[in-house]
Amino acid sequence: MYTVKAELPDPFAFDGGGRVSDAGDWRRRRAELLNLILGTEYGHLPPTPTDVYAEILHAYTLHDPRGVSHATYRVVTEGGARPFWFLLSVLTPTGDGPFPVVLCGDACWRYITHRVESEILQRGYILATFNRTEIVPDDQRTERDRALHQVYPEGDYGALAAWAWGYHRAVDVLQDLPRVDPDRIAIVGHSRGGKAALLAGATDERIALTSANNSGCGGAGSFRVQGEGCELLENILGVFPYWFSPRLNDYIGRDEELPFDQHEVKALVAPRALLTTEAIGDLWANPIGTYQTYLGAREVYRFLDADDLIGVRYREGGHDHSLDDWQTLLDFSDRMFYDRDPGYSFDPEPFPGMAPAFPWTLPPRAD
Ligand code: GTR
User: Fold this and answer.
1) How far apart are CA 315 and CA 214, in angstroms?
2) What is the pLDDT of residue 63?
3) What's the pLDDT score for residue 265?
4) What are the CA-CA distances from residue 225 to residues 209, 261, 262, 311, 342 (Å)?
5) Of 191, 232, 283, which is best to mutate to test ligand 1, by the most ligand atoms within 8 angstroms of its C-beta?
6) Ligand 1 atom closest to residue 195's alpha carbon, by position in its atom list
7) How many angstroms is it from 191 CA to the middle of ligand 1?
8) Mean per-residue pLDDT for 240-261?
9) What is the CB < 6 Å shell around ligand 1?
10) Residue ranges with strand state E in 94-176
């Protein structure tokens, strides 16, 4: 059961009229969407620092049969009102690499269990983690006087944009580590961390694969297509206003009038790889609405001849970043980075017979 408050807007339609008809047009349309989405929803990301470097705090090889090496870095950024730093932990499998990376900003949570860690390493990935709440805290205090807010006191950025900035700074450092393959960096986050990961992937073209788990409202969920029991703008802004730009408040009670929907946030990632992992029972995160944003964004991937680079998967159960979700991400990444076929599709029909909540179709390509 769900309500379509309005159809999903056409991502190919330029603001001033006309539609995208070739790859160059899409670049221009993408820039328009980016401005609109940052200006309205998340705020603009804090500035790119003048310098970013890593200081190693410790490095050792774990005394276990895996031969894994562990290093902790202090990621230091210069620029703004004062220097800033946060910690980045890097687990590297045995061997010379270069290895693809899975980067996750949810070190403040406890979803990356020993089992998850082992699976990532055994499949030949570096696991890099940081605690996004070191960038800006995840709490209600309205004073913007801590952590990155002291460095960049100006700006309309909410916490999600600041956390996305944290992903970018981790990439700055990772891409220069000797056993990292900079062309195979995947990022992931869960729930509010998934919203941040989606935004990070949408705004940084160095990221080869973006993944958001159970990210819901302000993430992979649609504002217009509202599944029964899903979180609405008024709910999320009632409790977590500081995650977003203050301008988003203008749309409380009229979600369907936003000048974009989340399929267009997903489309910013195209043609780079994008996977969202969802749970059928996680009604608050709007599983039906996330399917509609998938359908909408898939059209952009089709336009760019990259259909197999967007995927979605649904599992049974509720809100969680479960081993299952991690395995799905690794299956998708394996297909892309290691040419290993998982033997199943990332283009499922979780709601058989459900029609797209939009009338527009793919524009003909002129190039
Ligand atoms: C909820 C919030 C959701 C989701 C979740 C989480 O309370 O309403 O949008 O972000 O928290 O992060 O676990």
Assistant:
1) 11
2) 72
3) 99
4) 26, 10, 10, 19, 31
5) 191
6) 10
7) 6
8) 97
9) 191-192, 216-217, 231, 236
10) 99-104, 126-130
Residue in 231, 234, 235, 276 to alter for ligand 1 test, most ligand atoms within 8 A of Cβ: 231
Question: For residues 242 and 249, what is the distance between their CA atoms, to the nearest angstrom?
Answer: 11
Burial (CB count within 10 angstroms: exposed 0-12, middle 13-18, buried 19+), residue 31: exposed
- Could you give the residue numbers annotated as active site? 191, 319
Asked if 9 contacts 260 with a C-beta cutoff of 8 angstroms, the reply is yes
Is the dihedral angle over the CA atoms 345, 187, 45, 279 positive or is it negative? positive
Let me know: does 102 contact 186? Beta carbons within 8 Å. Answer: yes
- Name residue 51's beta-bridge partners: 78
Protein residue whose Cα sits closest to atom 10 of ligand 1: 192
The Å distance, Cα 297 to ligand 1 centre, comes to 23
- Condensed to tens digits (0 to 9), the pLDDT of residues 5-25 reads 999 999 999 999 999 999 999
Q: State the maximum Cα–Cα separation within the chain, in Å, rounded to a whole number.
A: 62
Look-up: residue for tokens 């995947």? 186
231 CA to centre of ligand 1 in angstroms: 9
In this structure, the residue with its CA closest to atom 8 of ligand 1 is 236
180 is written with which tokens?
Answer: 């990292």
Task: Look up tokens 């980075």; give the residue.
Answer: 337
CA of 13 to the centre of ligand 1 (A): 32
Torsion angle, CA of 155/160/165/168, rounded to 10 degrees? -160
Write the single-letter amino acid at 275. Answer: L
Q: Taking Cα atoms as reference points, which of 328, 264, 228 lies closest to residue 26?
A: 264
Question: Which atom, in ligand 1's list, is nearest to the CA of 319?
Answer: 13
